[in-house]
Amino acid sequence: ERSKGINGLDKIVLREVRGSSAEVYLYGGHVTSWKNDHGEELLFLSSKAIFKPPKAIRGGIPICFPQFSNLGSLEQHGFARNRFWTIDTDPPPFPTGTPPKAFVDLILKPTDEDLKIWSHSFEFRLRISLSPAGDLMLTSRIRNTNSDGKPFTFTFAYHTYFSVSDISEVRVEGLETLDYLDNLQNKERFTEQGDAITFESEVDKIYLGTPTKIAILDHEKKRTFVLRKDGLPDAVVWNPWEKKAKAMADFGDEEYKHMLCVEAAAVEKPITLRPGEEWRGRQELSAVPSSYCSGQ
Ligand code: TA6
């Protein structure tokens, strides 16, 4: 249902019959909460998040479009997360015909101001839904609606902040042995070691050509987040650690211990659409009990 959230910003609350829920702000098309059927919050949202345009909300799932990071002339991560989206009154059909119980369809189109900084017309449709099992699904459909015949090229990420008990007891599985660009070393290319990734300092890596499924294991909670993706070949892993955390005004000094970003992305090979063409990028998040014990 639609209501007023922080600072009177419009938000939509999705509720699944078995108790799971999600919240999305029209500002940024930004998912800020995803709770399981026990009411546990599964996404990280900074206690210092500034819900005040034009600043992006710190946490949840920022939408990075039409530019990931500083890979281009736009502001960091593009501008989709800094704009007011609207309810899509002409949403795409549901694949199975029958819509899930809990969903919302949002749309973003460029304003005249946007066209001055990125001279392309597009329709960005974002569907957010909860499955009966409480999985959170995001589907992005981006269509080139240029009338001048011009194609456009973009990079993209679901900049997902997972809530974790203790970053020093988290492992990520699925990225072993892959190549990555290290944002802490001028985006130079390296190859990841052979076993699960663990965390003891700042990490900011763009893994290339990643599998459709990545697992994030939280030892204390005995819980595994499973991220499934389609149309998003790369995955960004980021934890700012202590020094960077202190340098961010909208991020608590200790909060790096309780979050990890794993971001389904299309970065290495930017996506080009000709007028009329549409791209689709999906991610599906689930949180499942896991028997993981650290040191395995
Ligand atoms: O997640 C990767 C990253 O590009 C990091 O380099 C860091 O800048 C992070 O995004 C957060 O960016 P933001 O603009 O939201 O502060």
UniProtKB/TrEMBL annotation:
Domain of life: Eukaryota
Catalytic activity: alpha-D-glucose 6-phosphate = beta-D-glucose 6-phosphate
Enzyme class of the recorded protein, top EC level: isomerase
UniProt-recorded Gene Ontology molecular function terms: carbohydrate binding; glucose-6-phosphate 1-epimerase activity
GO cellular component, one term: cytoplasm
Keyword set includes Transcription: no
EC number(s) reported in the record: 5.1.3.15
Record bears the keyword Isomerase: yes
Keywords noted in UniProt: Isomerase
Example of a GO biological process term: carbohydrate metabolic process
Record family assignment: Belongs to the glucose-6-phosphate 1-epimerase family.
Name of the protein: glucose-6-phosphate 1-epimerase
Organism of provenance: Coffea canephora (Robusta coffee)
